[in-house]
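Q: Got a minute? One more chain.
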Amino acid sequence: MFKRWKIPLFYRYLLSYVLVLGIPILVIGLTLYSHIVNLMREQAFEANRKVLTQISDIVDSKFREFMSIAGTISNSSDFSTKPPQNPYEISMVRKRLNYEIGNNFIRELLFYPHGGTYIFSNSSSYTLPFFHKIFRFEEWQEPDFERTIGDLKHPTLTLATRDEGSGSYTTQFVYMVPIPLNSMNPKGTALFTVDEKSILDLFQALMKYRDGNTFVIDGQGRILTSLQPIGAKDGVFIERILRSDMEGTETVKTDGNKYYVSYAKSRTIGLTFVTIVPDKELMQPVNEIKNKSVVSAVLILLFGAVFIYFGMRLNYRPLLKLIRHGEARWGAAMQHAHGFDKIKAIMEYAEHMQSRLNRHEEHAQPAMRQDLLSGLLKGRFKTKEAFHEAGQTVGLKLGQSAYQVVIVHYDPHIEDGSDLRDRLYSRLQERMPDDAEIYFVNMVEEGKEACIISVNPGGLWNEEAWSDVRQSLAAELSGPVTIGIGNAYTGPGELYKSFIEASTAIQYSAVKGKNRVIMFHEASAARVEQVWYPASEMQELKEALKRKESAEVMRIAGLLVDKIRDNSTTLFMATYLCTDITNMVWRTMQETCGGKYQSGPNLDVMALTQLGSFDEYVQVVMDVCSFAAGEFENSHSRSAEQELYQSMLKYLETHALDYHFSVQGMAESFSWSASHIRRVFKERSGVTISDHVHELRIHKAKLLLTTTDMSLQEIVVKIGYSDVSSFIRKFKQHTGMTPRDYRKMGW
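A: Always. Here it is, folded:
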């Protein structure tokens, strides 16, 4: 059929997907409609019951906190059986009350010591007559109040009208608790006052039905407070509630209307919480669904078709983006291609670019080889294995066991001097053993070529063999050629010594004459090489570096500098000692600091051989040691802050869920200022302490939501928050969903 109508393939699939979407919608609409409506009705009832239970749990938790505070007061030495007699004792009582009032649900916390004449609060003191004048209790006249508060044996909740001044009055919930708790002979009474508005605000935040009402009934059937004014019909509800000991929801008809009445009894203070919701408001969502179900099905089908359409287009988008990206980057290469041929053009162009990259890498290899060979002369590689690992990509390897540096000095102005390296390489290849390895290193100074030769000890040349090579080169260049030869060493980490020796041999040509081969052992420097070496001072410096003692490092460095000046008779000795000391310093810093330091000031052995005075050499030693000392000073400071940061992390793991946690308290526990620990924590972690605390609390809340059946209020108390609505907002900011939705997802 599709082929007969010549419908494009894209729209064939689109129509098929729309049919797949529409059939399930039709089945659901015909077979499950009534079931869904009934289920939503039950969910509406359950939501109303949960709102009431949440109100009861929150109020209960608040009063349990009151009991906890009363228990703390009972155990405090500041509230002795003897009423406070002097200003100091009074101030200590107030201070303690101020500390304990950390619950913002409490308007005022007061304490009355039995037998006393004053009631103390965190901010003031009242005589009993004056207190009764401010707080007008409907149940008691002044003598009755004094007798009641003095003989109180059990927690009691009552109402009072508070005079706020200027003719303004507020209703207060007053919760009186004997101190100590459960004592036959209490020593005092704690009074917690709560604004009626605080409780009503709590009801208002949780009660989502506009025409509904919420009120609180005490054990004597009195209505303590209500969200809306109490009407005549409310009396019918109250009578039924007082006659029933059960909790739940029931239907009540009055005045021709149907209401759903839910009530729950407090397990802490004996109050009954009641919500009344009209049937028409509670069932309004259900009725809307009934009226709009058909429209919703049509909309789902319509939007589903649109989503399917764009979803199908989305499947083509990666290819389209690839083509457009190729056109933007390499339009010239694709200008004659169309459709899928453009993808083929992109692949061919990518292969072309890869080929160019490979050729570029081949051109870069000589520079990479020179860098590694230069590092070999500078003493960067201590072992053959380290050099092989770095040089395997460019084909560098030291396969033999003896290493020697040779420097060829010639006139840079002669006509054929530019190809001396090739000529020297040819001569050496002709005469060296087959397994010898020859590498040239670029020199800064014109007219010099440095050559690294790796052979077995038996393959090393004598002076006569080198003289033959020199004569051959001099004849070809028609100019003088001088060759300086350093000693051979068995470790690549000592090649810098051979380079210094070869450089010294070249410098000795000013005495012995140019246009000849000069072995290092012929130079005068070689004869004094072993006269003096600061072995003990070098060891002391190494130990001081390992201990990271900055002052000791600088002291020994100064001692070394003085001895170098006093004992070095040649610039060779200064070069040799300077290189040894600086290499030892940097290697020790690498070992001590985990390889952090790879290079430092004036470690280029080629540059060191060009220095012309003792002062320049000893300044190199002082610069390197000064740098190391400065790094150790900074390291000590960073280590102390890292230790403090780790201690803070452990502290937060233990105390972040505490209701009374504060940054100031945390700072006092570490004997630091709050600003200091905030800075250290922010620098180390990238977040503030408060953000980290919220992270820990939200993580704990996720765990409790998915592994327990605890109510939201219980979880809020468990993780250190006091306000449910604030927690919900923070949880949603963090996860993108409400706690209830998170629990449903089962994450």
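A: The first strand starts at residue 108 and ends at 113.
Q: Perfect, thanks.
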